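Second opinion, please. Please look over this fold, written as tokens:

===
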Amino acid sequence: MLLHIIARGRIARSPEADLVDRYVKRIAWPFRLTELPERGGSIPPVLTPCRNVLLDERAAPMSSEAFAALLGGWRDSGAREARFVIGAADGHGEGARAGADLLLGFGTMTWPHLLARAMLAEQLWRATSILAGHPYHRSG
């Protein structure tokens, strides 16, 4: 299953970009990163069975193990892509939130978009490692 981060804003060369790259290189599953401008631009069309995840500070917390189990279940049920959408500074509209398969949050604090991207990349790597039976996820 393709793991696809779709994010508003360009990350450019920065310590946050280095951190994203560090975890993306470790992900054994197919991976894509799509960067959209802050305003405008459109999310690429869905061409295969897909799950849509919106990052949202109002979402209920989820453990790394539960996140891994969810991804594994989606993969095993035939989803070909899981999209993780990081919105603009004003978040996602109610229509997008209502149509999502999952609202995913990293707690109720607001995180800078670049750090949220790095945290998401790390959790995707961790989830795929858990599914592969790697023990590292417990030592963090």
